[in-house]
Automatic annotation (TrEMBL):
Subcellular localization(s) per the UniProt record: Bacterial flagellum basal body; Cell membrane
An annotated GO BP: positive chemotaxis
PANTHER family: FLAGELLAR MOTOR SWITCH PROTEIN FLIM, YOP PROTEINS TRANSLOCATION PROTEIN Q
Name listed for the protein in its UniProt record: Flagellar motor switch protein FliM
Membrane topology: Peripheral membrane protein
Family per similarity comment: Belongs to the FliM family.
Gene assigned in the entry: fliM
Superkingdom to which the source organism belongs: Bacteria
GO cellular component: bacterial-type flagellum basal body; plasma membrane
Primary localization class, coarse: other
Keywords: Bacterial flagellum, Cell membrane, Cell projection, Chemotaxis, Cilium, Flagellar rotation, Flagellum, Membrane
Native source organism of the sequence: Lederbergia citrea
InterPro entries (alphabetical): CheC-like_sf, Flag_FliM, FliN-like_C, SpoA-like_sf
């Protein structure tokens, strides 16, 4: 997080001082101009580098695209999800920022040690419920707990997103995410210690005309074993890795089994539109290829071989005489 950004506790203290008259906006501005020493809060230690944050953003950019496709198909309406920001803050600050009656998916991420939280803003969550139940996808204020039917619908909807989360992470680690619980009150979450650093990936989501946020909270303890893999150097090395020998052999075998169209071209001719329109049954078209010249064999539209026509077992056949190399003058047939 940038050093100039205030924490939630600092914002609350500032608003309280202004509302009680202890400090005016001008006093705060003057104090800010005079301050030359910045206080470092060890409780808000930045444990992730910018490079690692960018790698996580890249992962969830892919996840957001997969979610957009999935929710559009499931809800049958316009869905748009994009990553807005990625930041690191204390877990306590994150929990205090979560509004009540929010859909909180707690996800166990095996084999990593820890759980991540997918927070769905009430506007988005209730618009999804309305759409699933046949409505237009409009949000509404809900003051009581979700019914068992609504909880089951939301669980089914978000359980299917875990395979997309697995795909998004496949370039960094092989994970097996499981939706362990679904909560609507952030105070009931048994997460990590309050001072634990977490990465919060914020995504803007739109369901029809309703918009809100989807936040992913990832504790440092979960990412600690794979932090070296979040560097740009690891991404570059991974992209340069060669295929395994068995993968290459399998690919070669599949290519050998692929079917392609082979065409023997007897020759060609140019006609005027007038001659073409006057063609009739029994007319003879003169080709520009001599009878003793080899035929051109094409794979698709690309000349690859020369050959001569004949018969084999009472069937028309072509015997290959030579190969047309790429760039050969013979290629201009």
């Amino acid at each position: 997080m940038p050093e100039d950004v205030l924490s939630q506790s600092e914002i609350d203290a500032l608003l309280s001082a202004i509302s009680t008259g202890e400090m005016t906006a001008e006093d705060f501005k003057k104090e800010d101009e005079e301050k030359k020493v910045k206080v470092y809060d060890f409780k808000r230690a930045l444990r992730f580098s910018k490079d690692q944050i960018r790698s996580l953003t890249r992962i969830y950019d892919n996840f957001a695209r997969l979610l957009t496709t999935y929710f559009s198909a499931q809800l049958r309406t316009y869905i748009n999800i994009i990553v807005a920001s990625a930041d690191q803050i204390p877990y306590e600050e994150y929990i205090r920022s979560v509004p009540k009656m929010t859909i909180l998916n707690v996800i166990d991420v095996q084999p990593l040690d820890g759980r991540m939280i997918m927070e769905i803003h009430p506007n988005i969550a209730y618009a999804m419920i309305d759409r699933i139940l046949g409505g237009k996808g409009t949000s509404y204020n809900k003051i009581e707990n979700l019914t068992e039917i609504e909880m089951r619908l939301m669980t089914n909807l978000f359980e299917r997103t875990l395979e997309f989360l697995q795909d998004a992470w496949s370039g960094i680690a092989e994970i097996d995410p499981v939706l362990s619980e679904l909560e609507i009150n952030p105070q009931f979450l048994q997460g990590v210690s309050p001072n634990e650093t977490v990465v919060v990936i914020s995504m803007n989501a739109s369901v029809g005309e309703t918009s809100g946020m989807i936040n992913i909270c990832i504790p440092h303890v979960l990412l600690e074993p794979i932090i070296p893999k979040l560097s740009a150097q690891y991404w570059m090395e991974t992209s340069r890795k060669h295929r395994k020998p068995d993968e290459v052999e399998l690919l070669q075998q599949k290519i050998k089994e692929a079917k392609v169209q082979l065409t023997a071209q007897l020759g060609s001719s140019k006609l005027t539109i007038e001659d073409f329109l006057s063609l009739d049954y029994g007319d003879v078209i003169e080709l520009d290829t001599r009878i003793d010249e080899p035929l051109v064999l094409k794979i698709g539209e690309i000349p690859k071989f020369t050959g001569q026509p004949g018969k084999l077992n009472k069937k028309l056949a072509v015997q290959i005489l030579d190969t047309i190399e790429e760039g050969d003058e013979k290629n201009e047939w």
